[in-house]
Amino acid sequence: MDHITNVSEYEAIAKKNLPKMVYDYYASGAEDQWTLKENLLAFSRILFRPRILIDVSTIDLSTTILGFKVSMPIMIAPTGMQKMAHPEGECATARAASAAGTIMTLSTMANSSIEEVASTGPGIRLFQLYVLKDRNLVTQLVRRAERAGYNAIALTADTPKLGRREADIKNRFTMSPSLTLKNFENLDIGKIDETNGSGLASYVAGLFDRSLSWKDVKWLQTITTLPILIKGVITAEDTRLCIQAGAAGIIVSNHGARQLDYVPATIMALEEVVKAAEGQIPVFLDGGVRRGTDVFKALALGASGVFIGRPVVFSLAAAGEAGVRKVLQMLRDELELTMALSGCCSLKEIRRDHIVAEWDAPHIAPRL
């Protein structure tokens, strides 16, 4: 894998290594996949305004997330069913995150359990939570995350139903019988059955609670003392409601463009959310990050950090834990280079005036 020079190159290797059904599950988006393309493309509508002749002989990428010191503002988003990519699945990802000194988020829908991932060693970890119809089950999951030393809950709020992912419908997506959703293993809901369409969509319809609302965020706070991040926010209105509900942070996310198609790219929605948050709680971004330049642009627009999803599963499929380590290292190196060439020695020096977005000055930014 020495020939890999950037994060995106792992996708072609993953496509070669994985069964079509698995690759399509990881790679595809909802319906026309407009937002899927847009999540990547929108970054190219933001250009740099670098400052020169600044001493950049030492550059510090470290930051504090939810009170925890991390080596860089690049973290791992929750992606489900990672053992479809590599036999070591989420445990390999956890080790890579820990080695890089950054945060991993474990999905509710993981093939490795909350406890298995915790047992890989020390690390700052979030547990991504789907609220299920059975609230006792939700309480159990949250308690298990607390006991295993997870540092926060990331509540996914954009999935009352699963988006229409047509590749999964065509492929009749199902998980290999040798794998289980490990967090549910002893509850008779660890398997995804084969159906005429997407097995996952049928599974989710039976399990997830469509009545999830703001009152449930309050309920979650009664069952845990862990900070709660709300994932799936893309508007100012919902940002204000997150703050009112006592959220500890917001993840600007469109679920990797897998839920509602024709929502804006997350980088396009970011500034609206940041302005509405008024610095009261941190705002993070996921979706479309493939370069250190993308990370810098998100930080310049006010994000406190970014989460990466598909680059993790693709590098995991290509090279296991070493692949994920390399992705984190490449993004780190690229961010450091972008900072040096922009005249920034620390994250707090990255300002809005280091970039110009197409919506600022249409005559400067490229038309796509």
TrEMBL record:
One of its GO terms (cellular component) is peroxisome. Glyoxylate binds at Y25, R165, H255. GO terms for molecular function: (S)-2-hydroxy-acid oxidase activity; FMN binding. Its EC number is 1.1.3.15. Its main location: other. Its cofactor is FMN. PROSITE patterns: FMN_HYDROXY_ACID_DH_1, FMN_HYDROXY_ACID_DH_2. It is an enzyme of class 1 (oxidoreductase). Belongs to the FMN-dependent alpha-hydroxy acid dehydrogenase family. This is (S)-2-hydroxy-acid oxidase.
